[in-house]
Design brief:
Elements: E1 3-11, E2 14-21, E3 30-40, H1 42-49, E4 65-72, E5 84-87, E6 90-91, H2 97-100, E7 111-113, E8 120-122, E9 129-133, E10 137-139, H3 146-149, H4 152-165, E11 174-177, H5 181-192, E12 198-202, H6 205-213, E13 218-221, H7 227-234, E14 241-244, H8 249-257, E15 264-267, H9 280-286, E16 289-292, H10 298-309, E17 319-324, H11 328-335, E18 342-346
Parallel strand pairs: 7-8, 11-12, 11-14, 12-13, 14-15, 15-16, 17-18
Antiparallel strand pairs: 1-2, 3-4, 3-9, 3-18, 4-5, 5-10, 6-7
């Protein structure tokens, strides 16, 4: 059996580059993809550092890949060897009630390649090759680079959260808390959808500068402790929509505190099980709406591809670092620093 190079997590803080068997497409509907580019998500970082604990070892992270089909299993009819593809990490059956309702990310038989959520976790894309299923593949438009294409999944999540779930309207005043990789994508979606005043909130000067470069109308430094006051100085009537895209519980608390009557807020960034408090009466009389969004769906992936293909989202502008797979631990170090946006791995 042929081997391949992969970054294997044997324990928290124990990510090792090693030779492992290359996957084979033995079962119905399976395909093997040679990975060309893979985005480095914050949830990958959390798994590597032990910030999230729902990890079974050994584990190959990486769930934002694009690449080339190199092997197809029995029953595969829509893709062939040599096709350039984008991989959706969340696998689904297509037949359970949730799938038939359009919520394939709730699938009762779900799996994920290198990601988080389902119990069934397949090896991910911080490797030269990855096994997945045909219904998780999307044709990569020829005009998109592999680096752009690998960001389809996070962009699809941003579209799903901002547009599909929180129903952003043209002219809405939008606040995005946390403008790292995913926060910038939420901000770009809001900009493309016609946000009025678009305020980026972050403790990192690097992130705030990037947000202004990519279209934020204002930025606020969250490290001062005056973020609520500073936002209301810009929009005295308060925000129409607040997107929490940072992760720490403090960001969720800030999103809560920014609400006025009718504010919609989306708890997008936090994935750890931490608690925050709500005033029941205030929730009642404010008539706000809280949404959340995780994972992706075929609809969201399709929308993200269109946003990139038409040039509405300048996707590669959110990339700050690129590393070969051989420098995966250098990439981990960058992920732990404040001076990065989207990091991409090239196996």
């Amino acid at each position: 059996m042929t081997n391949m190079l992969a970054a294997v997590l044997h324990d928290f803080n124990d990510l090792i580059l090693e030779e492992v068997p290359r996957p084979q497409a033995r079962n119905y509907g399976e395909v093997v993809v040679q990975i060309k580019s893979c985005g480095f998500c914050a949830t990958d970082y959390k798994a590597i550092k032990g910030i999230r604990r729902n990890v079974k070892f050994p584990f190959i992270p990486g769930h934002e890949p694009s690449g080339i089909v190199v092997e197809v299993g029995p029953g595969v009819v829509h893709f062939k060897e040599g096709d350039e593809v984008i991989c959706q990490p969340s696998g689904y059956c297509g037949f359970c009630k949730n799938c038939r309702d359009g919520n394939s990310h709730y699938c009762e038989h779900a799996f994920t390649t290198g990601g988080d959520g389902p119990e069934d976790v397949w090896p991910g894309a911080f490797a030269e090759y990855m096994l997945t299923k045909e219904n998780c593949l999307f044709a990569k438009p020829a005009k998109l680079s592999f680096d752009a294409a690998c960001l389809t999944e996070p962009l699809s999540g941003a579209w799903k959260g901002v547009i599909q779930y929180s129903e952003m309207h043209v002219g809405d005043d939008v606040v995005v808390i946390g403008v790292g990789g995913i926060g910038l994508l939420c901000m770009l979606v809001a900009k493309a959808a016609g946000a009025g005043r678009l305020i980026a909130v972050d403790h990192s000067e690097f992130a705030r500068k990037q947000a202004l470069t990519l279209g934020a109308t204002h930025v606020v430094d969250s490290s001062t402790g005056n973020a609520v006051k500073d936002v209301y100085a810009i929009i005295p009537e308060g925000p129409d929509l607040v997107i929490e895209a940072a992760g720490p519980i403090a960001a969720v608390n800030l999103a809560r505190d920014l609400r006025r009557r009718g504010t919609r807020w989306n708890i997008f960034g936090i994935t750890t099980h931490e608690k925050f408090e709500l005033d029941g009466g205030l929730v009642h009389f404010q008539e706000g709406r809280m949404d959340a969004s995780f994972g992706t769906t075929p609809l969201a992936m399709t929308k993200a591809i269109r946003l990139m293909e038409t040039g509405l989202i300048p996707i590669e502008k959110v990339v700050s670092h690129r590393f070969p797979l051989s420098q995966i631990n250098e990439a981990v170090a960058v992920m732990g620093s404040p001076n990065h946006n989207k990091v991409i791995i090239h196996p």
